[in-house]
Design brief:
The chain is of the alpha+beta class. It has one domain. The chain has 14 helices and 10 strands. It has a 4-stranded antiparallel sheet. Strands 6-7-5-10 form a 4-stranded antiparallel sheet, with no helix packed on it. Strands 8-9 form a two-stranded antiparallel sheet. Strand 8 and strand 9 form a beta hairpin. Helix 2 packs antiparallel against helix 7 and helix 2 runs antiparallel to helix 14. The longest helix is centred in the N-terminal third of the chain and has 15 residues. The chain is globular, with a radius of gyration of 21 Å. This is Multifunctional dye peroxidase DyP2. Belongs to the DyP-type peroxidase family. It comes from Streptomyces cyanogenus.
Length: 444
């Protein structure tokens, strides 16, 4: 593990959406724009630089409300960023998410050909995200941001997705969301696992040393420094299929909850199997200081408590040596629910679109998001499980079952259907506030 060091992050230049977790409860909106006129696109950057919230602004009158501005590779090109600068961005970013579909296992129903228009196309240039504790304050944030893009005929709004917290503050499969958050050195924001040493700031913010001692930043430095990469994905959740799978493989309601916990690695209250292996502990699940403070190797190296193939152990193996240097693949993950909940007890799909807007923040698209997505979520080699994929978000082949380690005989469940389908997404760059102004001041 890396030892703590004195690092001063320029928080007043970093967008707050990079480092701050979403409030609880929350409401959020994603707005996507296409730049049709270069000069007006630059004007959009100038205006948004005054609207985007900095990471230092944690005591504003709006409270836990902020606006973030992200730009795709195609957006940077539309703004007229020189080729010499574009070529210094991560190559995955330059390709775009749709071109990376095979590596991400976005195939079949999740393939870009099936995505919701205009996601995954070269028309997606700018993504403005607003987050607030409730709908009234969200609308206030949108109203505050509207002058940045309003009355710019050369900038066209092409897509919007509204998100919110369910009444239970859970996602559509019934699990408490937003439990895990890494500590970032120099941010002053504590992580959710008190046993985890803060990660080097360069793992998440460009222009600072990372875990390997390197400093990554697109050029010129005024553009790259204090920025980050962001991944946005719209993920449809088949809540009815998930409920049916639990029912069909369980001996009763209590067993359904046990299977749900073994699939996720947590009870649906948020309590982890590592700390509550035999039964749910709702008080633990609601305690932010305890529910994520645990490791695996000392108490459960073989996965009899928390299965090695469950979702949270794949997404963050913590101290598991079998997964290599875990710290090189840590991510800041955020989820925002969209669509109405499936009514309680309903087991058949009602045809309503519901799911999760997933966001990843980091400085290394390849060894963070793409590695976790391709190697940990959609392969089982690291966990000694061959080609078995993540039971929740993996690209299920509908032939492979799920195995729960158990003495004296392991428990094998039926073949996993696909519970989550990709509806679209994109790789984005979250510029620092200085970089937003720089983009606004570009000249041909």
């Amino acid at each position: 593990m890396s030892a703590p060091a004195d690092v001063t992050l320029e928080l007043d230049d970093i967008q707050r959406g990079v480092l701050s977790s979403r409030p609880t409860p929350y409401a959020a909106t994603y707005l996507v724009f296409r730049i049709d006129d270069r000069s007006q696109g630059r004007e959009l950057m100038r205006r948004t630089s005054a609207v985007a919230t900095s990471a230092a602004d944690t005591a504003s009158p709006l409270g836990d409300t902020w606006v973030s501005v992200a730009v795709t590779y195609w957006g940077l090109a539309a703004l007229g960023v020189p080729r010499s600068s574009l070529d210094t961005f991560a190559w995955e970013f330059r390709q775009g998410m749709a071109a990376r579909a095979r590596a991400l296992r976005d195939e079949g129903a999740s393939s870009p050909q099936q995505w919701e228009a205009p996601l995954g196309t070269h028309d997606v240039h700018v993504v403005i995200t607003a987050v607030a504790p409730d709908p009234p304050r969200l609308e206030a944030a949108i109203d505050r941001a509207r002058p940045a893009y309003d009355r710019l005929p050369g900038v066209t709004a092409i897509w919007r997705q509204d998100c919110y917290a369910l009444p239970t503050e859970k996602e559509h499969f019934g699990y408490l969301d937003g439990v895990s958050h890494p500590a970032v050195e120099g941010s002053g924001i504590p992580g959710s696992n008190e046993l985890e040493v803060p990660l080097k700031s360069g793992e998440f913010v460009l222009g600072y040393p990372d875990e390997l001692g390197g400093v990554q930043a697109p050029q010129p430095d005024v553009l790259g420094r204090n920025g980050s990469y962001a991944v946005f994905r719209k993920l449809h959740q088949n809540a009815a299929a998930f409920r049916r799978y639990l029912r069909d493989n369980a001996t009763g309601p209590e067993d359904e909850e046990l299977i749900a916990a073994k699939i996720m690695g947590r009870w649906r209250s948020g309590a982890p199997l590592a700390l509550a292996p035999r039964h749910d502990d709702p008080a633990l699940g609601t305690d932010p200081h305890r529910r994520n403070t645990f490791l695996y190797e000392e108490n459960d190296p073989t996965g009899f408590l928390t299965p090695g193939g469950c979702h949270i152990r794949r997404a963050n193996p913590r101290d598991a040596s079998v997964a290599g240097e875990v710290r090189l693949h840590r991510m800041i993950r955020r989820g925002a629910v969209y669509g109405p909940p499936l009514p309680e007890g309903v087991l058949e799909d009602d045809g309503v679109d519901r799911g999760l807007m997933f966001a990843f923040i980091g400085a290394h698209l390849g060894r963070q998001f793409e590695f976790v997505q391709s190697e940990w979520m959609n392969d089982g080699v690291f966990f000694g499980a061959g080609n078995v994929r993540d039971p929740v978000v993996g690209a299920a082949d509908e032939e492979t079952g799920y195995t729960i380690p158990r003495r004296p005989v392991r428990r094998r469940l039926a073949a996993l259907p696909r519970f989550v389908t990709t509806r679209g997404g994109e790789y984005c760059f979250l510029p620092g506030l200085t970089a937003l102004r720089w983009l606004g001041d570009l000249r041909d």
